[in-house]
Structure to design on (325 residues):
C-alpha cells in the first residue's frame, strides 16, 4: 500500500490499541483532547470533545497526518532541533518528534499550537504515552491534553502565535531565548539578538490606514521566515518592531552578517495590490554573552545600538558595544 494513502480501518475496531470497553468509554467522555496516533503520525481516532474543540468531526480527522493537518511543519522543525540538541541524537522533523523522548525512557509533555479547521491557532500541552498490543509491542501513541490545561470549550487568553503574521508571539520569546542561552552556555556558542524596526511604520498607517500596515507586517514576517534558519525564531514585538533570535552562532560577526541580509531583504518593494510600498528597516544587534546573559539586557543593548546616532543618521545595522569598552 502506498505510504501516503491512509490505511483503511473501522473506527469501532480499536483492537490495535488494545483498548477495553471501559477505556474507550472514559476516552469518549474525557472533557479535553485525546487522540490515538500510529507510529507514522497519523490520527487513528480522536475523542468527540477534542474534535469539537478543533472544529472537526471525529471521522474527518481519522487517518489524517497530524503534521500538516493540525500541526504546522515549522513548529515540528523547531521541536526536532530542540530534541536533537537535548537528547544528543538526530531527530528528524517528522513523526519521530512524538516518540523520541519516549524511546529514551523520558516523559514527553510539550507545548504545541494546534490549528483549528478555520485556521485559528489553539495552544495546548500534550502529554504523550505509548500504546501496546497484547505482546507488549508498541503499536501507537496516545496524546492527551495535559491536566490543568483549560477545558476545550473555555476561552484561551494566551496565544503562542501572532494572529496577523503567523509568527510566534511575544509569549514564547522569553522561553525560547532562555532555552537558546542554556544551549549556548553548554556548547560554548553564542546567541544573536536582532531588534528590527520598520522605519516610518506609524506614519504609513496614519497616511494610508491600518490595512496597508497589516499588509506590510505580513510581508515582513514572510521575508524574515525566508531569510532566517528554521532553528532561529522571529517574533513580532509591537507595531513595526520584530525580534529575531539567532541560535548556535560561533562568532558575533555572524549575527551582524545576518542583520545586513535581513535589512536588505526588508528593503525590497512590497506590492499590496493597492500601492507599492518601499519600506526600509533598521536593525540593532546584540550577542549573548557579550552584551548580557538575560533577554532584557540583550534587548536593551540592541535597542541602544539601533538608536545610536551615526553623524546625524541611524545606521541600517548597528552593533551593540560590549559593557566596559
Amino acid at each position: 500500500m502506498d505510504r501516503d494513502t491512509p490505511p483503511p480501518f473501522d473506527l469501532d475496531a480499536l483492537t490495535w490499541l488494545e483498548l477495553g470497553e471501559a477505556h474507550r468509554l472514559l476516552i469518549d467522555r474525557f472533557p479535553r483532547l485525546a487522540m490515538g496516533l500510529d507510529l507514522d503520525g497519523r490520527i487513528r481516532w480522536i475523542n468527540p470533545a477534542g474534535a469539537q474543540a478543533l472544529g472537526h468531526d471525529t471521522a474527518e480527522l481519522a487517518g489524517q497526518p497530524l503534521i500538516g493537518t493540525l500541526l504546522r511543519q515549522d513548529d515540528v522543525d523547531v521541536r526536532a532541533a530542540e530534541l536533537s540538541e537535548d537528547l544528543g541524537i538526530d531527530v528528524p522533523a517528522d513523526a519521530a518528534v512524538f516518540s523520541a523522548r519516549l524511546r529514551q525512557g523520558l516523559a514527553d509533555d510539550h507545548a504545541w499550537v494546534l490549528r483549528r479547521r478555520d485556521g485559528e491557532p489553539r495552544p495546548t500541552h500534550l502529554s504523550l504515552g505509548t500504546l501496546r498490543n497484547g505482546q507488549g509491542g508498541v503499536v501507537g501513541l496516545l496524546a492527551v491534553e495535559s491536566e490543568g490545561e483549560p477545558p476545550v470549550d473555555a476561552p484561551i487568553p494566551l496565544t503562542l502565535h501572532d494572529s496577523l503574521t503567523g509568527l510566534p508571539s511575544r509569549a514564547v520569546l522569553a522561553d525560547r531565548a532562555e532555552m537558546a542561552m542554556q544551549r549556548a552556555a553548554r556548547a560554548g556558542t553564542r546567541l544573536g539578538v536582532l531588534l528590527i524596526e520598520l522605519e516610518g511604520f506609524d506614519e504609513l498607517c496614519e497616511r494610508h490606514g491600518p490595512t496597508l500596515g497589516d499588509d506590510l507586517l505580513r510581508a515582513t514576517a514572510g521575508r524574515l521566515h525566508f531569510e532566517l534558519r528554521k532553528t532561529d525564531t522571529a517574533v513580532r514585538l509591537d507595531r513595526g518592531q520584530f525580534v529575531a533570535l539567532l541560535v548556535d552562532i560561533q562568532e558575533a560577526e555572524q549575527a551582524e552578517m545576518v542583520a545586513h541580509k535581513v535589512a536588505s531583504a526588508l528593503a525590497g518593494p512590497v506590492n499590496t495590490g493597492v500601492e507599492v510600498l518601499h519600506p526600509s528597516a533598521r536593525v540593532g544587534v546584540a550577542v549573548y554573552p557579550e552584551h548580557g546573559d538575560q533577554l532584557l539586557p540583550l534587548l536593551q543593548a540592541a535597542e541602544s545600538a539601533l538608536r545610536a546616532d551615526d553623524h546625524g543618521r541611524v545606521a541600517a545595522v548597528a552593533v551593540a558595544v560590549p559593557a566596559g569598552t
Q: What stands out?
A: Residues 1-18, 148-158, 309-315 have pLDDT under 50 and may be disordered. The chain has eleven helices and twelve strands.
